[in-house]
Amino acid sequence: DVKVTQSSRYLVKRTGEKVFLECVQDMDHENMFWYRQDPGLGLRLIYFSYDVKMKEKGDIPEGYSVSREKKERFSLILESASTNQTSMYLCASSTGTSGRGVEADTQYFGPGTRLTVL
Amino acid sequence: AQSVTQLGSHVSVSEGALVLLRCNYSSSVPPYLFWYVQYPNQGLQLLLKYTTGATLVKGINGFEAEFKKSETSFHLTKPSAHMSDAAEYFCAVSPSGGYQKVTFGTGTKLQVIP
Q1: Contact B96, B106 (CB under 8 A)
Q2: Is the pLDDT of residue A103 over 80?
């Protein structure tokens, strides 16, 4: 079974704090993703990584950064948390064999971290 | 550009009744289409996906969806609802390529009434 784990299920932080959300996958997947999920908005991609130390901005990268130092771990960083970053954060991973894409691969999601910024 | 519209943010059905969750998409290229399910306090799980070939796609837990190009629709159905089907369901669309190009709908919460 593919496992994508996230370091915390619930997190409460104060405005201005630096926040780290950690994600680990155990299937040697090349691709990892960070989304935020808000009611009525669905999932929106924050950042995507296709290899160690490689990243691409998603649809809503403002206020976030990421780090991927090891293949299995992808971290989302809120440099200075704000109340509008209160949300559910979902990590995901997928294989990235060249030329395959969504047709052949499957994306696996972690259980999510519900972050509240006060 | 691509987009997904899920009709109805909340749907209620009686246990044993037909489940129908509606999804319409727009895409400038032949799309890949997905349905995901999210149970309370869990991540998303793939129910089924359409890539090419047969337009009726069968997924897990008895769900299926039919790709109708002329109607730009990909509605999700299940003949008989179970209490365990209560969850939020997301439709998604993608052009070819990787999952970073997937656009998700806003979700439909399914309530199953005993």
Answers
A1: no
A2: no
